[in-house]
Design a protein that fits this description.
The complex is a heterodimer.
Chain A (H helix, E strand, L loop, with lengths): L6 H16 L4 H26 L5 E4 L10 E4 L1 H24 L8 H17 L3 H19 L5 H32 L4 H10 L6 H17 L9 H7 L2 H24 L12 H22 L3 H21 L3 H29 L16 H16 L5 H12 L6 H28 L16 H19 L1 H16 L2 H9 L22
Antiparallel strand pairs in A: 1-2
Chain B lengths: L1 H19 L4 H21 L22 H31 L8 H10 L2
Helix pairs in contact in B: 1-2, 2-3
The chains are: A mainly alpha, B mainly alpha.
Chain lengths: 521, 118
């Protein structure tokens, strides 16, 4: 048993207290350790992804207790890919935070950042639903601190709304977990997949209820309409690097939906057949439409980017809710793209703030370093709206192609194409007002400081990743197809988790046989 | 006993939801606390209700109670306690900063923001 799987969780968990305790008053030391920690995370994540790329499912038993009683971490293609994406995103966002000085405008930025990474990594790696809840809470409690970093009344108000909404979401999550446990007597994902299949057709009320409750919880995280209300103001008011890191948090919800609704409540499962598919796709279409209309209607640049996040999550959820191997593969390709594109845009919006009093979409004196900032915004907007040549275009093509098999393919095509047009108009309007019309306004006050080169470098790095994602679209898409094939054939995953012996158990003696009495209710 | 526990969970949830919709920080925080109490009892009951039964499998014991929900509830209690502390601190900060404890954005404030826009 290799211990590397737990390293993405342990490393930030050790680093964060160290930063608080040993480097509390030295921003320089904090920066060095934070960057070194994220670099190490990338190395570990790349190693795990390389290990999982040939289709092996690696298992880590915490305390050597076997599943389903012990908690397990599982590294397969999907989870290692998401871990790698998080680590890479975290590096560039961290560099931006350092370059722009955001990390020095309040206390404990780096410690909270590491805790946040710990929660996200754990949520991607865990193989246990209750443990998923715990990691959700870890990432949330760190995000509360990051969200109100640097303070300010507007930000605190938005922070209160964000925290309360997520507390309600957590409560709902617990209700769903309680219902699932009452029905099946287990919360281990692989074990659940086996037991849910055994439930008879006459006793499916509880499990159907639990499956829909769980879907609602993940839909809150993924900001799916009509559960998206928390996102615009919290993402717009959060400090820019934090909002950029939050780009991965909506994807945690998408990841959880992919994981749970391909393995446990799979489309073939009779008990829940036709339950989530029926209204997940319409909700996703409405999300996409609302998000892109929000882009057109937004009157501030940061809110515009927040609405584009809702729109791109709608796009991801359209592909997921097809629940076909092609659809999931397209969704995974688009998840990587939209994470990078949303982070880029949040950071560019922050650059535009330098030299402007606010981010209202109105003609004000040109921002400092306007040409370069405008260029970066142009590239980010092309990526987000899905125009060629960047990866958004390819991702959208994949989703359109995958949706051919759907019953309402015409609706999918219509909504995707029309909302793309709307978002292009929205971004074009915002860009021309903020960067072009500004040239007609005389600079009245003293010129603002140019943003630091490191800030530009970080955004440039994210854009370079987007270009790589486009250039290597073929290999990437093949890898996504392999990943989604692994998701739709979960037997190796289940047998690895359930049949690997741990402490005090012999192979094959099936911890899961002597706890069957739960099913006789 | 099932009826009693189910009624208690229902009342706690209803009261919690009602208070949450009051949209002032103090009632909302109390409401969320009530909701977490409801969910804790719900989790506890998910292992089936059994009175006076040991939570550990032993020879000669026929009736036993499920120990796992108790561990789950313990975790949930600790987490919700920490979360409540955090939300109290943040909303206190928001209240002291703006001298207003509304959770939602005030309509008046939005008008003000519009005026700011040139």
């Amino acid at each position: 048993m290799t211990h590397w799987i737990v390293a993405p969780v342990i490393l930030p968990a050790m680093l964060a207290p160290f930063i608080v305790l040993a480097a509390r008053y030295h921003i320089g030391i904090q920066r060095v350790f934070s960057v070194a920690g994220v670099l190490a995370l990338i190395a570990v994540a790349a190693g795990l992804a390389w290990q999982a790329s040939d289709g092996t499912v690696a298992l880590y038993r915490l305390g050597d207790w076997a599943a389903p009683f012990g908690i397990v971490l599982v590294a397969d293609r999907l989870s290692t890919m998401m871990v790698l994406l998080t680590a890479v995103l975290a590096l560039f966002v961290l560099l931006y935070a350092i370059g722009s000085g955001w990390d020095d405008r309040g206390r404990h930025f780096h410690a909270l950042y590491q805790f946040q990474l710990m929660g996200i990594m754990g949520a991607f790696l865990t193989g246990d639903l209750f443990n998923l809840f715990v990691f959700f809470e870890v990432l949330l409690i760190a995000s509360y601190g990051l969200m109100i970093h640097a303070g300010g009344n507007v930000r605190l108000r938005a922070g209160v709304q964000y925290v309360l909404f997520n507390l309600l979401g957590s409560t709902l999550f617990l209700f769903a977990l309680g219902a699932i446990y009452a029905e099946t007597g287990t919360l281990n994902m692989a074990d659940l997949a086996q037991r849910v299949a055994l439930i008879g057709p006459d006793a499916t009320v509880g499990i159907r209820l639990a499956s829909v409750l769980l879907l609602m919880v993940f839909a809150i995280k993924a900001a799916l309409v009509p559960l998206h209300f928390w996102l615009p103001s919290s993402y717009a008011e959060a400090p820019a690097p934090v909002a950029a890191l939050f780009a991965i948090m909506t994807k945690v919800g998408a990841y959880a939906i992919i994981r749970v609704y391909t393995m446990i409540f799979s489309p073939e499962l009779e008990a829940t057949a036709g339950l989530h598919g029926a209204w997940l796709l319409p909700a996703a279409l409405v999300s996409l439409a609302i998000g892109m209309i929000g882009v057109l209607g937004a009157r501030k640049l940061d809110r515009l980017v927040a609405f584009s996040v809702i729109g791109s999550m709608g796009m991801v959820m359209i592909a997921i809710s097809l629940f076909t191997p092609d659809g999931i593969a397209a969704a995974l390709y688009y998840i990587v793209h939209s994470t990078l594109a949303a982070a880029t845009l949040f950071l560019v919006a922050d650059l535009a703030r330098a030299g402007r009093a606010n981010l209202w979409l109105s003609a004000q004196a040109p921002v400092a370093g306007a040409a370069l900032t405008a260029g970066l915004f142009f590239a980010g907007a092309i990526a987000m709206t899905g125009l060629p040549p960047l990866s958004g275009f390819l991702g959208k093509l994949m989703i359109l192609r995958a949706s051919f098999t759907s019953d309402i393919a015409a609706w999918v095509w219509a909504v995707i194409l029309i909302s793309s047009l709307i978002s292009v108009v929205g971004f074009a309007r915002a860009g021309s007002v903020v960067f072009w019309k500004a040239q007609s306004v005389d600079r009245t006050d003293h010129p603002a400081e140019r943003p630091a080169p490191l800030a530009y470098a970080a955004i440039g790095g994210l854009l370079a990743l987007l270009v790589l994602h486009t250039v290597f679209a073929g290999p990437m898409h093949r890898y996504m197809i392999a990943t989604s094939a692994q998701l739709f054939a979960p037997e190796p995953y289940i047998s690895t988790v359930v049949n690997t012996p741990g402490k005090l158990s012999k192979p094959g003696d099936g911890a899961y046989d002597d706890s069957k009495q739960k099913e006789d209710h | 006993m099932e009826l009693l526990v189910a009624t208690a969970i229902g009342i706690l949830t209803a009261a919690g939801l009602y208070l949450t919709m009051r949209l002032r920080t103090f009632p909302v925080i109390i409401g969320i606390s009530l909701l977490t109490y409801a969910v804790n009892v719900f989790l506890f009951a998910s292992g089936r209700l059994a009175v006076g039964a040991p939570p550990i499998l032993r020879d000669g014991v026929e009736v036993y109670t499920d120990p796992l929900p108790q561990a789950l509830v313990l975790t949930a209690i600790v987490i919700s306690f920490g979360m409540t502390a955090v939300v109290v601190m943040i909303s206190l900060g928001a209240y002291l900063g703006s001298n207003d404890d509304h959770v939602d954005d005030e309509p008046a404030e939005i008008d003000l923001a519009e005026e700011e826009a040139p």
